[in-house]
Amino acid sequence: MQKFNFYYLSIFLWIFIVFSSFAQKGAFTADDAIRVKSLGNQTLSNDGKYLAGIIRDGSARFDTDHFRYQDPSYTNVYPGELVIINTDDASEIRPYEEKARVTSITWAPNNTEIAFLEEKSEKLHLMVFDIARKKLREITITGSPILADSDLTWTADSKSLIVHTRESGWMTRAMDLYNEATKGPIVVYDGSKPFLKWDDIRRINLLTEVHQVNVSNGKAVKLLSESEYNGLNVTEDGQHLIFTENFRLKTAYERNKGTEFQTAYLDLTQQDSAKIIYPRNEKRRDFTWTESKNKYAWVDSGYVYVQTLGEENARNLTKGKEYLDEENKKEVKFSIMAWSPQEGQLMLSSDKGYWLADAVGDNLEMIYELPEDKVETPNLDFINWSQDERYLFFSYSNKDKWERGFTRFDLETKQMENLLIDTNLYSNVQASKDGSKYILSFSDGDMPSNVMAADASFNSMKALTDLNPWISNKKLTRSELISYRDVDGKELKGILYYPVDYEEGKKYPLVCEVYETFFDNGFNSRMNLIANQGYFGLRPSVDLEIGYPGEAWVKGITSAINKLVDEGKVDNDKVGVHGVSYGGYATSLLITQTDRFAAAINISGKVNIISFLGDSPKIGTRNYSAAEVGQDRIGGSLWDEPLKYFETTAVLHADRIKTPHLILTGEGDWNVPGTNSRELYYAMRRLGKDVVWINYLKGGHGAGWASNESDYHDQWKRIFDFYEKQFAKEKKKENTDQ
Predict the structure, then answer these.
(1) pLDDT tens per residue across span 75-98
(2) Do 477-733 and 36-138 have the same topology in CATH?
């Protein structure tokens, strides 16, 4: 009898502890949002034994000086904890006891050292850390050149680093140009000059020299004189440096104009001049290199070419070998996915499927045919080719539901095999050189990600990090993928976030966060803060159409809201909407078309697409291209399509707005200057509308969220207070009507 009672007592105590711990969970607050950590800049050693990365929390971006954007003397590397994780046992090595400002992490080919740049006193320093000896040292470079914030490249013998440096007179030239634009006292903008003033500043900021630095003694040898370089690679035999050089000619208003590109290689063993692979051309050519960097492939007009470094002639692997239409000889257009590990084959893709091309012979074979219905076909993204060249590994994502994971294709059986498919979220996948180990970020879709290690079967995973153990004691939202049809009948997806302590059958306020398309979930601090206010959160998708972008939000978002109201989840009169940047623009435009919302908040979003064309000088012609051919989707210039610009400018329709509007901006926002958003405040005030404008004088793009910690908290409080006030108004109105 005593044994029986003890058993049930144990069960009771266990239930009591579980429910007590749940009941004691605290609210997720703005302080908690700042505390959430993630591991970024993840870099895996070739042998897969070590993973280097930087742990940062939400405070890392605080106190950025947004006013010094494009300032040549300003280096702003975010602080974090540099960590090196042993992927076998999850043990950690910390080169620094405290946070450091570290960037450009790269592993030596010997797998025993990492190099990186550390910012101290607004200057970058070249650092090397020895894993075995746990020794951190700075490489003092002969001549003490100024280092540029760019990638580092090891030579094959792990004895030297290829680094970007500044020419001796660069800082003076760059600062003279910058100071003239910002301090004057007189600034001249001359349309006859080849560059816009801020394009010229950016052009100068991109200029570097390239040096080879011996890591044992700091001796530096200049390899390349001042120009704009990218795509640096060293061949496996250590003999050649491959690079792309950009020649900016003028400020251009058309995409892919105004710059010429050239690819070349330099013999590191001799003092010869560089040999040209691809001569200067306005058409950029992207090369896919083998692991040894001795062979390269590219696509031109849908054909695939291969060439060996140093050889004169290229081979066309696809011309005349495959036709979409045999009768009219319409050839398949290809893109390159990857070289095989032994460098004898290439995997290609087309609209029809995946192909295997022989890099030295004539064989071209379609190995996997894609279904004709591309809309329903899951996304497959290539990850790795097994060392024995039998398997191709892909990440997998269903387009209709949260079904994600990994598959592999067997080149012998020509079969696709699911390795791991479930509802979890996988990202940042890296593989060791031999393909025996995979490192990835993992989340169940609602919790913050941690880093995991897996073998090539993905049967089991081992946690390498536990970055936020405290968060299990916080009340968090749960997410759900919902489907709905917009006004035109097109099926769309959205992510619904439930209020904490949700009760079935009870109606809740709803806050929509708008932008473009949403599908994958993942931990979201903003939605957790909304859910902890007792609101539903919704990230709805819209179907944006070239020439008619303004219609998409009202067609899609209102349909999603109506669906939730009809299901009895949402209080029809307590619906709010906000967005950041393009989402802020969408918010202001949306409320000129409908009075569906009780409250609306524009965070760093433009309100006048016409004046915005010249409102962001520090980023050149971006606003013109965004409107004409980019995200704004107008589909033409102001002079070709004036009515479409008028239709998508919220301030011109301010008289239609009935929704209380909160506008949040940052004085230092170089992306969407607050002066643009200010126009709607003045218009609504003139019209007697309910509007408040908050301008954070130290804020950037994101307003108070992109400022300091005090402003971060202030912005959240204002957002919560605004929604609560407007929702309370609706409740009071509802009671009065009754």
Answers:
(1) 999 999 999 999 999 999 999 999
(2) no
